[in-house]
Amino acid sequence: MKNIIEHEISQITKSILDDYGTGRNIDKMDLFNQPSKEEIIAIVEDLLKIVYPGYYRDRSYKIYNIKSNSTVTIEDVAYHLNKQILLALKYTAKEENDVEKLTEQAEKDTVTFLKKIPDVRAMLETDLEAAFQGDPAAKYRDEIILSYPGMFAITVNRLAHELFLLEVPLIPRIMTEYAHSITGIDIHPGATIGKYFFIDHGTGVVVGETTVIGDRVKIYQGVTLGALSTRGGQKLRDVRRHPTIEDDVTIYSGASILGGETVVGKNSVIGSNVFITSSIPADTKVSMKDQDLRWGQ
Amino acid sequence: MKNIIEHEISQITKSILDDYGTGRNIDKMDLFNQPSKEEIIAIVEDLLKIVYPGYYRDRSYKIYNIKSNSTVTIEDVAYHLNKQILLALKYTAKEENDVEKLTEQAEKDTVTFLKKIPDVRAMLETDLEAAFQGDPAAKYRDEIILSYPGMFAITVNRLAHELFLLEVPLIPRIMTEYAHSITGIDIHPGATIGKYFFIDHGTGVVVGETTVIGDRVKIYQGVTLGALSTRGGQKLRDVRRHPTIEDDVTIYSGASILGGETVVGKNSVIGSNVFITSSIPADTKVSMKDQDLRWGQ
Amino acid sequence: MKNIIEHEISQITKSILDDYGTGRNIDKMDLFNQPSKEEIIAIVEDLLKIVYPGYYRDRSYKIYNIKSNSTVTIEDVAYHLNKQILLALKYTAKEENDVEKLTEQAEKDTVTFLKKIPDVRAMLETDLEAAFQGDPAAKYRDEIILSYPGMFAITVNRLAHELFLLEVPLIPRIMTEYAHSITGIDIHPGATIGKYFFIDHGTGVVVGETTVIGDRVKIYQGVTLGALSTRGGQKLRDVRRHPTIEDDVTIYSGASILGGETVVGKNSVIGSNVFITSSIPADTKVSMKDQDLRWGQ
């Protein structure tokens, strides 16, 4: 570039650097005291190897020894997760930053979380079975673990949910948004989800923070389990805003079920594109009547 | 971490390792005899370079020689695809594992697939033209190849479909789910798709395994070509469950067309959000009547 | 592989290489004179570091010095963006390729774009505030910058829009399609978007090229701001095809608002799944009447 351009770039750089100093939220500079998105994604990838020991292997190990390999991975996760939790706790601590107390809390959270892994794995075994039994296009269970976005999303979600229950800040949401960006399935880590959960296709699914889902529930692409209105914004925080879906419910593609007082009773079937804002009794099938269509040539 | 934590981690590691030995589906350890998702994705990336020689180049080649470069890429794909097909065949072989026969089958499949590439490229040239002619926002054909998700999805799908027709297990679905995770477009490798196919925007599109699509069909974001109900689960496998879309049909965003006996006749136009579960004659326009809306202030 | 296979591969390679020479659009070989998708994505990642200096840091810098680090990043972006713009201008120049004039144009565009960064950052600060105030599930502003797909999409879009206004070819769309592949949110770089814009969840959102959006607008997943029909194809290029959304409008999930003459007046609220093809006055709430549902057991 010509000298004149270099001079311009230098001026622009100065004006951008000046612009950083105006105390705005987008300019927070506390970066080395902040949890790292990249580190958290690396932890998720390691957790997948721990959860599915045969499927997500570290390809740099030529001779595979499940025991020593898993041991290394678990120790790695413990070390890095502990570090990220501590950063998250310090970063969000509102009052006096009692480092010793936060350090203890981070270690406690790390250990409690890791102890939950066998329980999470027991749940995921049921999800895998639900996907296999529920999808006629599934020819092998391996196909589901290796390629189904719904299986990926529920795996990350069940892990993130355990951290959410421990009130670890920031990290659970970064985990589920990573899964969202891979799968198009947006499940808030706060959602409570029962056994044998199956999401087919999945793109566009939204499951809100205070949703409660029973056992053996099946949902399709584009289903929203959402809030009726969020115009209240921050005032609605910690209020129950999302529906309850009881056991053995199926919800077909594009259906929206909204509101914190809405309960879909067990065994019910909600048809495609149905829009529900009040409760549905158990054992009910709800579908759209033939739409009022305009025909022409 | 303190010693006490290290002791806890060691206990947790032991309990997770113990948990692996309970014979569950999520614990299958046959990993070196299993096709590799990472390898299959690398093969897809190489196939893209072969299909679009000018667009997906290997940036490590400073001096580009299309002939020698493509030769190396094709040989690479042949070698790695053959290996992955053999792994997939061995892995899913139910009875006696006749290695020699499977080896022969893998080589035959690899060669048959590679011979199809010129035909696939001829189809993709028609898809590119359909995208350019069909989208007023498309200013250059290059833009479509370099950035349109619909073009990416149909490219991967046409390649995967050839492997599906050869009954190669696991690999075709891993390929299309890779495209799904990049584009939000979920086309099963089993779907049969004619020439000049154009998917605009694309997020949320689902095209089921037994769908048949004619020539010059155009679909938009959120369109589902799906099954009426999959409550039958594995019993429905190999049954025709998805619709037939004849030549020159346009399907606008969010429309759902469901069922194995549903045929949308040629030249028909299906409007946004229309929900169809029975056949539509040729030359028909179907759209929602003005919705029954509630107005307030 | 056996010799016979090697011979077959060699034959296949020959037939694919022959197939490249038939002058089709998928075969354009002008690759070193073409903007590079990978380079443009790298530029986007660098722009994110410049826009959010505390959030997207280069992790290879151990000792972080915001001033020297940002200076290097801005100079890098200037150099690489200038190069890509020049490639794009040369590549799409229809008539005599006046290199000197294009070089000057590329430098001018690069400088004009970089000068806009403080303005873009001022807009993004308002978007961040809109997301925080609008989402009861948002506990920290950091969470939004680090993980909300809507924030990512609008960031990339506001940057790409500036290049679109400068009529830089190819690059703006490659930038927004990168964001689309990460977030499922498809905003054309041509769309004009006011302050305090918030997209919640976001998967499946489509905002067309000629859309105009006012200040403090909030939209949810699956909203389409689209064209009524694009059957006219390339003939419709440069015609106003997409709607106008005035200030303070909220549009809930799955709603479609279509057509270049459609205006949604200020303060209006459009309910989930509503389908609108004509204008809506200011201060109006439009929602679906209770759907005509079929109930069964």
UniProtKB/TrEMBL annotation, chains A, B, C:
Keywords: Acyltransferase, Amino-acid biosynthesis, Transferase
Gene label: epsC
Source organism: Hominiventricola aquisgranensis
Protein name listed in UniProt: Serine O-acetyltransferase EpsC
Pathway linked to the protein: Amino-acid biosynthesis; L-cysteine biosynthesis; L-cysteine from L-serine: step 1/2
Domain of life: Bacteria
PANTHER family found in the cross-reference section: SERINE ACETYLTRANSFERASE
UniProt cross-references to NCBIfam families, sorted A to Z: EPS_EpsC
